[in-house]
Amino acid sequence: MPRFAANLSMMYTEVPFLDRFAAAAQDGFEAVEYLFPYEHTPAEIAQRLQAHGLTQALFNLPPGDWAAGERGMACLPGREAEFAASVDTAIAYAQATGCKKLHAMAGLMPAGADTQAMRATYVANLRWAAAKLAPLGITLLIEPINSRDMPGYFLNWQQQAHDVLAEVGAPNLKVQMDFYHCQIMEGDLTRRLEKHWAGVGHIQIAGVPERHEPDSGEVNFPHLFDHLDQLGYGGFIGCEYRPKAGTSAGLGWLRAYLASKKTSQKDRT
């Protein structure tokens, strides 16, 4: 049965960040993810996870100056030392929290950028980071992000990401497949998932097109959840959406799906 992780950067924003761990656990989540933990110490994060019996599913490397609009630096020539330092920073948090998946944001393409140089920098940085993370048992992730929400982002397409995986050649480099971004850019989610299955390392969801709960809009999420189950997906599904109103009040979709799975399991026994 699929397992779900609450994204604490988007969910439970009714309370301060460190209080969101308790709120997620109270609603039955087994795991959490978020964009960045760096405003708090590794020990503070680890304490919340342990206190509430939660698994840390994922978080991002430091992205550069987020407030100024930066969205990662992995593909940016001249930022290699800063990228390397971001990996070291993330490792400290990963080791404290037991997190085994880290997402490296690619970055935005400056106007008139040399895309070949950016691609070479991206591949070299990812190869270096994957090699550093491998002895720690950590998987490095890259994520295609839609060009509507994040114009100018270096990585937009599933095939583009899997081509990078092939070029890097590191077994612990995988693609973070967010069905929200993929639907906006490409659609055909079931077949695209099947095509790239071997390289998928993490799944995220949100309703399309508004990025609210996955219970309305143009995507049949129960079908995708069942298909992930059939494919043998063992990771968490990250709920990276913005609740329409209260987070807990909007979890009817999750309760209904889990109840339907329990009912079908009873029917088979």
Automatic annotation (TrEMBL):
Molecular function terms from GO: isomerase activity
Task: Look up the domain of life of the source.
Answer: Bacteria
Q: Which InterPro entries match?
A: HPT_OtnI_isomerases, HyI-like, Sugar_Epim/Isomerase, Xyl_isomerase-like_sf, Xyl_isomerase-like_TIM-brl
Query: In the Enzyme Commission scheme, what number(s) does this protein have?
Result: 5.3.1.35
Q: Can you give the residue ranges of the Xylose isomerase-like TIM barrel domain? A: 21-256
Keyword field: Isomerase
Pfam families linked to this entry: AP_endonuc_2 (PF01261)
Q: Which family does it belong to?
A: Belongs to the hyi family.
Q: What is this protein called?
A: 2-oxo-tetronate isomerase
The record lists the lineage as:
Bacteria, Pseudomonadati, Pseudomonadota, Betaproteobacteria, Burkholderiales
Q: Which gene encodes it?
A: otnI
